[in-house]
Every structure is written in structure tokens, then in C-alpha cells.
Amino acid sequence: QVQLVESGGGLVQAGGSLRLSCVASGSTFGMYSLGWFRQAPGKERDFVAAITWSDGDTYYADSVKGRFTISRDNAKNTVYLRLNSLKPDDTAVYYCAANFVGGYDYWGQGTQVTVSS
Q: Which is higher by pLDDT, 38 or 29?
């Protein structure tokens, strides 16, 4: 099993930036990708970005392309999400998740991002 711990959330003004981190511990052998998802109050959890663990290929939701950047540090078992040009609509709890085979089966506890206008 793998455990995921997110950090880096907070309160920021519109136009500001944050960097989220997600540290994976436990058995990461066979992990295909790590992804970031977010859930705003009263809404479903949505995909934000993902990165493949071996090759570093990246994928983004259209709503964050050009503003968010996902990266990884394999030596530290950590994935990052840089959030730039933040908007109030980006306010949500951001979750990190690990995909081994067939889907994201492991989730962190989430970190709150609040963007004020």
C-alpha cells in the first residue's frame, strides 16, 4: 500500500500562486501515475492534472492549462502542483491520488486552497 500526504494549501488573493506537495510513502513499486484532483463545496471531485511516474508525461484539465504545472521528484517520492494566476473558482480541497493499475485507488487527506477576490 501507499500513503499520500498533501501540504502547501492556504489562503491567497486572486492572481497569486501556491505550490502543493504530495509525498508518497510505503510501497510505490508499480505506481503508474500520481494525479491531483479538487473538490469545491457542493461539487463533484474533478481531475486537475497527472504525471506518469516513470516517464514524466503530464496531463491537465482544460481549466488549468497554462496556469498549473505538475512535476515530480522521484528521489523524494514527491509530486508537486504549482498553481499560478489563481482565480476564486480554483477554491477547493485539493487531493493527491496514486494510480497503480486501472484507476486512482489511493488518496491523500486533501489540502484546502482558498482564493479570495
A: 38
